[in-house]
Structure formats: structure tokens, C-alpha cells
Design goal:
The protein is of the alpha/beta class. It has a single domain, classed as Glutaredoxin. Helices cover about 35% and strands about 25% of the residues. The chain contains four helices and five strands. The longest helix is centred in the middle third of the chain and has 16 residues. The protein is globular.
């Protein structure tokens, strides 16, 4: 089976729709100039493949989408927020190694 799961780029416009489903959603709030954000990108790609069908992984560029960032009070990036049925259930700030992020996902999905 090909590895088709990928990180989806979302915006202020589709944020609510993308986080409202029954499948838990991990949203990475990032910006292109942020080095820790760039370091996190391959980790998120791997997590998206690893949890395909169980977790949706999205990225929201905070420079281009200030409305959602402000609404959710995201002050530092990268910020990772887990949503279930459109509601925030957990927030992690800063770079995380894949094993640490996988541990957080496992706890969320348990």
C-alpha cells in the first residue's frame, strides 16, 4: 500500500471545518522563518503516515492566518494543538522529537 497520508495545509477560512470531524486532528501552528518549525516538518510527515486513518495532521501558517492564531491565543511557534470534535484537548509548544510526539498521540488516542 503506498504511503499516501500527508500533512494538509489549512487556513483561517477552512480551520473550523478541518478540525470538526470525529477523527482527532493535530494542527501545527508554524511560520516559514521559524527554524524549530522547519525541524518539526519531517517529524509531522512521519506522524501523518504512522497514524494514517487514526489522526489527521494539518499545518497552519501563522503569518498568513492571524485570525485563528489570535483566537486560540497561540503566542509561540511551533505550537501543536490536538482537537477532537472541534475542541482543543491538548497543546504542546516547541520542537518535539518523533518519539515524544508519538507518545503524546498514543495517549490522545488511548
Amino acid at each position: 500500500m503506498p504511503e499516501t497520508s500527508e500533512v494538509k495545509h489549512i487556513s483561517d477560512r477552512d480551520f473550523v471545518a478541518e478540525t470538526a470531524g470525529a477523527v482527532p486532528v493535530l494542527v501545527d501552528f508554524w511560520a516559514p522563518w521559524c527554524n524549530p518549525c522547519r525541524m518539526l516538518a519531517p517529524v509531522l510527515d512521519s506522524i501523518a503516515r504512522r497514524y494514517e486513518g487514526k489522526l489527521k495532521v494539518c499545518k497552519l501558517n501563522t503569518d498568513e492566518n492571524p485570525e485563528t492564531r489570535t483566537q486560540l491565543n497561540v503566542r509561540g511557534i511551533p505550537t501543536l494543538i490536538f482537537f477532537r470534535n472541534g475542541q482543543e484537548v491538548q497543546r504542546l509548544v516547541g520542537y518535539l522529537a518523533e518519539d515524544k510526539l508519538a507518545q503524546a498521540v498514543d495517549e490522545l488516542l488511548a
